[in-house]
Amino acid sequence: MNENQDHINPPSWSLRLLRLFIRKDYLEEIEGDMEEVFYDDLETYSPGKSRRRYSWQALKLLRPAIIKTISGSQKLNYLGMLQHNLLITLRGFKRHKTTFLINLIGLSTGLAASLLIFLWVNDERSVDTFHEKDNQLYWAMTHFELTNNLVTWDYTSGRLGRTMVENFPEVEDAVWIGNGFYKPKGVISYGEGNYETHGLYASSNFFELLTYSLLSGNAQKVLANKESIVISEETAVRIFGTVEAAVGKTINLETRLISKEFIVSGVFEAPPSNATLQFELVINYDNLIETDKWADEWNGGYAQTYLVLKQGTDIEAFNAKIENFMDDKVNNERFSVFVQKYSDYYLHGKYKEGTLVGGRAESVRLFTIVAILILVIASINFMNLSTAQANKKMKEIGVKKAIGANRLSLIIQFMFETLLISFLALLASSILVYLLLPEFNLITGKNIVLNIREHLPLYCWTVFITGVLAGSYPAFYLSGFNPVAVLKGKISNIKGEEFVRKGLVVVQFTLSIIFIIGVIVINQQIEFTQSKNLGYDRNNVITFRSKGLDRDQVLSFVSRLKEIPGIESSGNMAGDFLWGEDSGSGYWTPQAPENRQHLFKSPKMGYDVIETLGLNIVEGRSFDPKLNEDENRIIINQSAAKLLGLENAAGTRINYGKSNFREVIGVVEDFQYGSMHQAIEPMVIRFREWGSDCIVKLKQGAEVNTIDRIEKLYKEFHEKYAFEATYLEDDYMALYESEEKESVLSNYMAGAAIIISCLGLFGLATFTAERRTKEIGIRKILGASQTVIIRLLTGSFTKTVVISIVLALPLGYLAVSKWLENFAYAVELRWWIFVLAGLSCLVIAWLTVGFQTFKSATMNPIHCLRDE
Amino acid sequence: MKKTKLGEFEELVLMTVVVLQENAYGVEIKRELESRLNETLSVGSIQSALKRMEEKSFLTSEFGEATQKRGGKRKRIYKATPYAHKVLQDMKDVRTQLWAAMPAAAAKLNFLMN
Fold it and tell me: Which residues are bridge partners to A351 per DSSP?
């Protein structure tokens, strides 16, 4: 042996190789042999060569007789192991009932809440995707350029579709339907019966290209001619009793635009509930062209056009290609055509200045995040309770490790335990989901049906991810104990671990407070929109529409209406007041000529509408029947006066179009036209005496009688139609349906989050109180009062919650300000919202821990000190 | 003989184990055989032969003392079982009988080779 041999070691990687591959029970001997040979070699060879020889020998050791078998050195009884784990787990559940229940309730509430949301998200995402050609189906839309802004229309000329098929090889086919207003809505008469119904004008290939299944009739032929009508199954059953009886029958359809006889050529199954187009009948689009030639003009925006593009079309390139397609058709460059995937429009349908800015996808994303956060909160409960109660498991772990359990098998055992409890929670939450689903459908306006086959993967994934999320930390933490220390009763690193636990509670409460802030703001905004002074009176005002009357009939109906006692005042206009969609351009003044292209809101009102709605005339006068108004006279609002640069507007004449004039007879104070998502815009009120939307203000006290009288009169004029009057107040509320839904949903979700967080806190409080029983007993004996004890026990929780509040307020502020950006008129974010959210969370936390704390504080110290 | 096959190399190792007696552990067997056969053997070949024979119950083994040279790792001392002795004896007998039965020419060849 030479001197420096002590410093020369066998190459470490070869050693590692040996340790990795050689069977455990042979390792010591072989390693020793190898080392002996190595030091023998060192006497004859250089260290380098000895090392090389060592490595070579090591490689040669990899022989079947020596290396580990694939299944490990021992055959394990896995089934027995699992049985054992199951037994231990179930005993654990039985023994620690409170923990088990808290975990179960927390997890199942969390799972139920998030499963409901996931079901909703799933449904939202499935909207309009049921078409067979879904991936080829694109919606052709237009950006329309105004003087200072760009609006996006989901409608185009009725001609666009077929012209594009002719001009672009990428377009395989096109289908178009009448847009918005241009939909047949009216009455089908057959024999003695009259049936109100609504539907679509559609190109003849409608049933061929879109997947609405026909129960009777040939998809290629049902709409082939103008006399054909295809009706829904329900309509067929309603009118004819059966589907078979319907086909071939002649019916009369009377709508606002047409009234003629049709032959039933087919019956279709009602569109699925996740279709945006809901209709009961379909007739050929040519019927629309026949009554209104604009339906087929380049300048008319009468149709929604859907294109079937060739597989693999590059959409960006295609959009660039078609952008200027309209220019030579309409002789200006204000239209630019583009396409968007049909099924994407539902979720991504909000355009601002020509770029996509979102849509419903935002709420979908928001709620997905909320669902995940709720799961996180529930998982945190599980983690905290498992690690907090680690000392109850320590002995078990110590013994297991001492007999030779390795860390991995312990981790597996704990994960198994978590997965078992999440599975139990899944069962509980499935029952919850099943029970809550009808209510949930009511809130969300959905029609979700539980379908085990379809939703099973979703369920399994949710449970698996929750299980792994909740179980991983405790599993690694618990399995890491040093058996010697644990069995001796020395618990190491408890401090750091408590820190983690508190951190997790902070996360929970931060999220809960953000949810509370969100809920308060959403509710505030809803209330704000409902109570805001809109500039008009919607109290006791009913609206209804007269249908199928000509001009003179409307006039006589309206004048008869005014004679009914019990009506304070009544008027009629064209178009729904609350939708605020009527608009027009061309008004300008020499002071502000650039406004020529400005699109003014321009409702057409008859006499007395302004009075009925209590609009405030600030200058000039309202429309007056004594003065025989005509359409050359207009009333503008203050914003319009400002935009047009008019100081004393009443009595002035403003330019209209190239060479026409309109006389401004009055200025009305700004009022909210349409929903509050729209800002108050410059408005020109045009005059039209025979608008068919009636607005009636009822006298207080005799509303029911008055409505009866109106209905009688209505029946006189409208034999076929039912009288459907609604309160303006209710209609206004309905405008905020989606916010209302969001608000109700978020209320429930925030509730769930808070309940789960508090459950966790309750568990922790129980645990702390339990652990400190002796301490409390000693303190009491030494003279501590109950107040001191209570302060002692609540102190740390208070600190945790206060930290959460500090974190949550800025985050919550950011979140709600982002949400409020959706509204033109948003409620102010006041400081008290944040204070309220923080305080309520603190109070809830106190109440939660209070029960336990109080119990411990009032306990007789004898009881806690006696037992050992 | 039928059931348990003892390979040529295994037989050599087995006999070395018997020869070395109390000193029969991996490296010593290797040294002994190397000097007798006059060739280098790898640890792996010796070890796999030992393990195979232990599996076939020709050998039993127990841990012996640890030396500093082995980095504090214990030796494993191998011992031939009575069964192994019997098999070795049987094989020797078979060989002797075969040698005896060989014709003269072969015997001459044998003589020449020596």
Answer: A356
Tell me: do A91 and A22 sit in the same domain. Answer: no
A280 and A414 inside one domain: no
Supply the pLDDT for residue A202: 92
Fold of B8-113: Arc Repressor Mutant, subunit A (1.10.10)
The answer to whether the CB atoms of B26 and A64 lie below 8 A apart is no
CB within 8 Å: B47 and A35:
no
- DSSP letter for each residue of A431-500: HHHHHHHHHHHHHHT------HHHHHHHHHHHHHHHHHHHHHHHHHHHHT--HHHHHHT---SHHHHHHH
Same domain, A567 and A470: no
Chain B partners of A57 at a C-beta cutoff of 8 Å?
42-44
Please state the pTM of the whole predicted model: 0.67
Residue A840 three-state SS: helix
Do A653 and A697 belong together in one domain? yes
Instruction: Compute φ and ψ for A23, nearest 5 degrees.
Output: -60, 140
Q: What is the DSSP letter of A156?
A: B
DSSP for residue A679: P
Q: Chain B within 8 Å of A151 (Cβ-Cβ)?
A: no
pLDDT exceeds cutoff 80 at A696:
yes
Report the domain count for chain A: 4
Contact A28 B74 (CB under 8 A): yes
Q: Which of A36, A53, A63 to mutate to test the interface with B (most CBs of B within 10 A)?
A: A36
Q: Is A15 on the interface with B (CB under 8 A)?
A: no
Pairs across A and B, CB distance < 8 A? 70
The candidate with the shortest Cα–Cα distance to A696, out of A582, A590, A563, is A563
Q: Is the pLDDT of residue A168 over 50?
A: yes
First to last CA, chain B: 29
Interface contact flag, A57 B45, Cβ < 8 Å: no
Burial grade of A523 (CB within 10 A; 0-12, 13-18, 19 or more): middle
Nearest by CB: B43 against A61, A64, A65? A61
Residue numbers in B near A62 (CB within 8 A) = 44
Q: Per residue in B67-91, pLDDT tens?
A: 887 888 888 999 999 999 998 998 8
Domain coverage including residue A408 = 81-127+358-492
| Widest distance between CA atoms in chain A | 129
Contact status of B23 with chain A (Cβ, < 8 Å): no
Do residue A29 and residue B73 have CB atoms under 8 angstroms apart? yes
Question: Per the CB < 8 Å rule, is B52 touching A28?
Answer: no
Same domain, A303 and A264: yes
pLDDT confidence of residue A1: 40
Q: Decide if A444 contacts A120 (C-beta within 8 A).
A: yes
**Average pLDDT of the segment spanning A161-189:** 87
The amino acid at A564: I
Q: Which two tokens stand for residue A522?
A: 């959403």
A339 contact partners, CB below 8 Å, separation of at least 6: A138, A139, A140, A141, A307, A309, A315, A318, A319, A322
* A314: its two tokens: 């590059």
Question: What's the whole-number mean pLDDT along residues A273-286?
Answer: 89
List, as ranges, residues 27-86 from B with C-beta within 8 Å of A: 27, 30, 42-45, 47-48, 51-52, 55, 63, 66-67, 69-71, 73-76
B74 vs A32, A39, A65: nearest CB: A32
C-alpha closest to that of A589 among A664, A528, A685: A664
Looking only at the bridges linking them, the beta strands covering A303-309 and A137-145 are: antiparallel
Q: What percent of chain A has pLDDT over 90?
A: 8
Does the beta-carbon distance from B73 to A61 stay under 8 Å? no
Which long-range CB contacts under 8 A does A775-784 form with residues at least 24 apart? A776/A856, A776/A857, A776/A859, A776/A861, A776/A864, A777/A859, A777/A861, A777/A862, A777/A863, A777/A864, A777/A865, A778/A861, A778/A865, A780/A861, A781/A861, A781/A865
The answer to whether the CB atoms of A30 and B47 lie below 8 A apart is yes
Quote the pLDDT of residue A557. 87
